[in-house]
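User: C-alpha cells in, sequence out, please.
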C-alpha cells in the first residue's frame, strides 16, 4: 500500500515524523514523503533532525506569497505529482494551507485521504485564521479522521461524520517530543548550545539562580494591537523579575519582527533570537520555568515536560488542556497577562498544580495507532 504523507510547515513535519517513521519501518507500506515547501527553511531543519527522506519537493515557496498562492500553487503541482506516483492513500496533517490543498488534491483525484490531528475546533472561523476554516473543510472530504482526543472526536460526531471513520489516537506531537528528547540526549551537550545561541545566553539559562521564560508568538489574529499588548506585558514582567531571562525566538514574518524588536529590543534580560531549529527549541522548553505562547503545538508539548503554559490567545482549539489544568488561556490584554503570570510565578502551589497536571494529549503511541488503522484499511482492500 503506497501512502503519501504531505507536509509543508515545520509543525506538520514534526507531528508527521513519527507516522513517517512507522510507515517506513513496516513491510506492509511503501512510504512516500511529499514536501510542498510552504515553510522551506524551517521544514528542512525538522526533516534533517529526524532523518526524514523527502521523496517529492513541490517547491512552492516564493517571496511575498499569500494564501491564494499557496493553495493554488500546491494544487497545480500536486495534480501532476499524484498522476505520476499514484498513491493508494494520502495523509495530511492539521490545519495548514498545505493540509487543505493536499486533501483537496486527493479528493479531486479519487484517492482516500486520512486527516491526522482531526476534529480540533474553536467554532470561530476568524480565530485562528485561516486554520479553523482549513480544518473544517478538510473534515468534509477526508476518508478517515485520526483524532488526538475524545473531545475532538465528539466535535466531528456533531458535524455528522460517521463514527466508523474516526479513530482516537492521541497526538503525534507527543511521540515526536519523546523521540526528540532521546535524540538530544544522544547527540548534544552544553558546548553545542553555546555554539547555537551564544555562550553568554547559554550560561544565563543554565544559571540555577535565574529562570528562563520562553516566548513564542506569530498568530495572524494577534498582529497589530494584540502584539503591542503582548510586548508591553513582557517588558513589564522583565522589569518586575530581573532574575528571569525572557527568551523570544522571533518569527520571520516582518509584521511580527518589527513590533517585537521595536518594543523589546533594549531590555537587559529580554533576548530576541532567531527562530530556532526543533532540537534547540526542545532544549529551551526543557530549561523553561514558564512558557508564553500563541502556538497550538506547544500547548500539547509543554505539559509532557511539566511546564506551565500561558496561552496568548482569546480562544483555543485545545480546550482539553484548559480542562486538564496544563495551560491557561490569558488572551492578549497586557494587564491580564501580567496578573496571570505573577499568580503562577509567585505561588509554588499554583505552579506545581499546573506543572504536575496530566497531559491530555496522549502517551507517545499515536503513530502506532494510526498505522494499525491503516493496516485495517489495507486488509479491507485486499479482502
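Assistant: Sequence out:
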Amino acid at each position: 500500500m503506497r501512502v503519501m504523507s504531505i507536509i509543508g510547515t515545520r509543525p506538520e513535519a514534526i507531528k508527521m515524523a513519527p507516522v513517517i517513521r512507522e510507515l517506513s519501518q513496516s513491510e506492509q507500506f511503501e512510504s512516500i514523503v511529499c514536501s510542498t515547501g510552504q515553510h522551506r527553511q524551517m521544514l528542512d531543519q525538522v526533516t534533517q533532525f529526524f532523518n526524514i527522506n523527502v521523496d517529492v519537493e513541490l517547491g512552492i515557496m516564493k517571496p511575498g506569497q499569500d494564501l491564494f498562492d499557496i493553495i493554488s500553487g500546491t494544487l497545480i503541482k500536486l495534480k501532476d505529482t499524484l498522476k505520476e506516483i499514484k498513491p493508494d492513500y494520502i495523509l495530511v496533517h492539521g490545519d495548514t494551507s498545505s493540509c487543505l490543498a493536499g486533501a483537496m488534491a486527493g479528493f479531486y483525484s479519487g484517492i482516500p485521504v486520512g486527516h491526522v490531528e482531526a476534529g480540533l475546533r474553536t467554532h470561530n472561523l476568524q480565530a485562528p485564521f485561516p486554520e479553523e476554516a482549513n480544518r473544517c473543510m478538510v473534515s468534509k472530504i477526508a476518508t478517515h479522521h485520526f483524532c488526538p482526543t475524545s473531545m475532538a472526536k465528539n466535535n466531528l460526531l456533531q458535524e455528522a461524520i460517521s463514527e466508523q471513520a474516526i479513530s482516537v489516537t492521541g497526538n503525534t506531537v507527543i511521540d515526536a517530543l519523546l523521540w526528540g528528547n532521546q535524540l538530544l540526549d544522544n547527540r548534544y551537550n552544553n558546548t553545542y548550545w553555546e555554539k547555537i545561541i551564544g555562550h553568554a545566553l547559554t550560561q544565563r539559562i543554565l544559571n540555577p539562580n535565574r529562570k528562563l521564560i520562553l516566548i513564542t508568538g506569530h498568530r495572524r489574529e494577534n498582529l497589530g494591537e494584540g502584539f503591542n499588548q503582548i510586548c508591553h506585558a513582557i517588558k513589564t514582567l522583565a522589569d518586575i523579575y530581573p532574575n528571569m531571562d525572557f527568551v523570544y525566538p522571533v518569527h520571520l514574518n516582518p509584521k511580527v519582527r518589527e513590533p517585537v524588536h521595536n518594543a523589546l529590543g533594549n531590555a537587559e534580560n529580554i533576548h530576541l533570537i532567531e527562530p530556532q531549529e526543533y532540537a534547540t527549541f526542545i532544549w529551551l522548553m526543557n530549561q523553561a520555568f514558564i512558557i508564553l505562547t500563541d502556538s497550538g503545538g506547544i500547548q500539547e508539548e509543554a505539559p509532557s515536560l511539566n511546564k506551565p503554559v500561558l496561552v496568548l490567545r482569546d480562544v483555543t482549539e485545545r480546550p482539553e488542556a484548559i480542562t486538564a489544568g496544563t495551560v491557561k488561556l490569558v488572551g492578549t490584554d497586557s494587564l491580564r497577562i501580567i496578573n496571570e503570570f505573577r499568580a503562577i510565578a509567585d505561588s509554588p502551589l499554583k505552579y506545581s498544580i499546573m506543572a504536575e497536571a496530566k497531559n491530555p494529549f496522549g502517551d507517545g503511541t499515536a503513530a502506532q495507532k494510526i498505522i494499525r488503522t491503516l493496516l485495517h484499511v489495507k486488509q479491507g482492500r485486499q479482502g
